[in-house]
């Protein structure tokens, strides 16, 4: 079986991980009582390997979300808006996401010393690109965001949280 997780260290500590599982249904049924102890959500996604591919989908989605949120916060600040007020409003509408709810304050404050590290995200995106090359999927936005993560690494942010993409957006903005 393969069983990658989403939710980070906080999800593990609080027992609220999301687990994407690949394997045989009989094996999944056997491990379900144990997984229920530390996961808020888990699902058998298909045969062995399907969990890892689902994790790839998760990472691709997160990359685009964090980049969009970075650009939105930066735009709000450049437009003279109170970014916290803006997020308070838009987080209750169609723009809502886990990233927005859990990372906007630290992004505004430039605090990135927690969460899922840029190095780990780049490793995961490399796995996604290798699979996309095999299966023919186009990942133009994920590839673009991976380049921005490379810029974060150049800023010394290898261990910064993935929400540190906002630092690249800020550094590329006109003052």
UniProtKB/TrEMBL annotation:
Domain 6-phosphogluconate dehydrogenase NADP-binding: 1-43
Annotated transmembrane regions: none
MF (Gene Ontology): NAD binding; NADP binding
Domain 3-hydroxyisobutyrate dehydrogenase-like NAD-binding: 49-168
Protein name: 2-hydroxy-3-oxopropionate reductase
Originating organism: alpha proteobacterium IMCC14465
Domain of life: Bacteria
